[in-house]
Amino acid sequence: MTYFIILLLLIPLAGFLISLLSPSRNEGLISRIVFITTGLQLIISLAFTAAWILTGGQPLASESVVIFSSGSYEYGLDLYFDKITSVFLLAGTILTFLVTTYSRRYLHREEGYKRFFYTILLFYSGYNITIFSGNFETLFIGWEILGITSFLLISFYRDRYLPVKNAVKVFSVYRLADVGILLAVWASHHLWSSYITFEKISDYQMVQRQLQAHGLIGIAVSVMIVLAAAAKSAQLPFSSWLPRAMEGPTPSTAIFYGALSAHMGVFLLLRTWPFWQHQPGIRLLIGVIGLSTGIVATAIARTQSSVKSQIAYASISQIGLIFVEIAAGLENLALLHFAGNAFLRATQLLISPSIVSQRIGEYRRVKESSFNLEKWIPERLRNGLYMLSLQEWGLDSFMYRYLWNPFKKVGGALGFLTARRVGLFFIPVYLTGAFFCFHQRYVPTELRAWLPAASSLLGLVMAIKSFSERKNVWLSWILIITNHLWVALAVSFNERIPAGQLLLYLSGVIIAGPAGYWCLSRLRKLERHIGLSQFHGHIQRHKRIGIVFFLSCLGLSGFPITPTFIGEDLVFSHIHQNQVLLAFLVSLGCIINGLSLIRIYARVFLGPGMRSQYELTYRSS
Fold first, then answer.
1. Measured CA angle at 523 (ends 562, 111), to 5 deg
2. If we measure between CA atoms, which residue out of 23, 137, 163 comes closest to residue 572?
3. What angle is formed at CA 301 by the lines to CA 297 and CA 303, rounded to 5 degrees?
4. Where in the chain are the domains?
5. What angle do CA 215, 218, 221 make, to 5 degrees?
6. Are β-strands 60-61 and 65-70 bridged in parallel, bridged antiparallel, or unpaired?
7. Could you report the per-residue pLDDT of 390-399, keeping only the tens digit for each?
């Protein structure tokens, strides 16, 4: 039956490729491709799930497909199907079919008709890879696809200011979830010292033996999983991104943020439940996060004037309750709650354009209930809670003040880093470091232990400067490349790594770096303004350059289109168990690199541009 799992993974991917190659103006052809793809997926999913239940409903695991192997390290793809996967599969398949069918007419004559549907199919491919994943490596592939398709769909109206700005904001929170997964993968490698799958961690005795021998590493893995789940599912303190994601088309918000993508944190917790179920502190942490999010999000939802914002915060509060149910060990209730919340929020978002008139009709027929819990709250406290909720408890400003602004301040202090100084100073320093890397006998013994962390810190400085750069787009691009080079040097100081492994990690940099630089140079000859001080919207006039540059950004960020994606995981395998600082610096550099790349693409190619007919609106709906 594992062949049917592979088929379910290939169908949406094939639909994506076919729709990508279809003529843009042929709406009928694109519509039929999407309808056949999602309809076939629905039929096979229902038949497969029914057959699986009738044959006993035992978990299915595919044989590992090893993509790369070196010594004790293996990078493999694993597929896994059980009760959790079946619920997410059926909910995702039914909702995707209904929403895409609804969108065929809803988006009629929309300029980005084809772009919307092939992005939806790519999202659905990533969703299926995530829920069918049998290990962290496979899950991270789907996790990354979900992140980039979120950015593309929120910024669907790419000639407007707010959709593009909010898309970058949402992507930045998703990158926080990515760092949680990266560090969890690194720590799990050292915890098990072998190739591990989700099927293996279901073995209670094996997990207990490992946790008793390596308790701190086990806690670190669990904390990183909770961080990734909370960020992905918009739990406190990351809740403010979900309403900002409503700037995309109504169908995409329904399927993404009302139904499927927002529940990926729930899936992650359910999938890793056998690992952390006997860690009371982690269960308490998940319960506290879920309960506090439910209370705060409910209060905020009651003060929102926008229908979509109300639905978003209502969904966040329900996901918080699902977190509480998972922490309490109520797996079946959590799955039922997920399915109900997904279908309800998708329906509410799809009818949101006409919900005002619907509510007016309800008020005419139904008299308001006399029972009101708010009457029991003292007036002064009630007014204070109202003002806090009206300002969304300052969650947005909290993220800026304590997360992104410190990086911007550090980047501002690095204003002396110009393109010329980078070439005159840091290139000789890097070459000197490379020399001592291959001739470490010349390095004092007491300094050798600090060289990996020092090199990764210099790489992080490059990434932060790139992220905060507001003028020179070429400098920002070059600094991203140098970050990868410093990471490679840091890991080389750590261990004697074969040249082939370093080449695997740097393969995306070698190809995507020059390609992106060429795109910027070519665009500079055609346009006068390509700086980072505003959104220029050049995609409207230079689509081909924009596509090549976007692919270059994906390659440079380690997206699963180049071997660099495997290389990143390989780099972490060479970071030792006691080198927490080095792992943190490398992972943080990777995350900021991805943010900087998406920011460059958004600033140069998206937005209203210099000659836009639209007024700049700076307040979100």
1. 80
2. 137
3. 125
4. 2-360, 414-605
5. 155
6. unpaired
7. 777 777 777 7
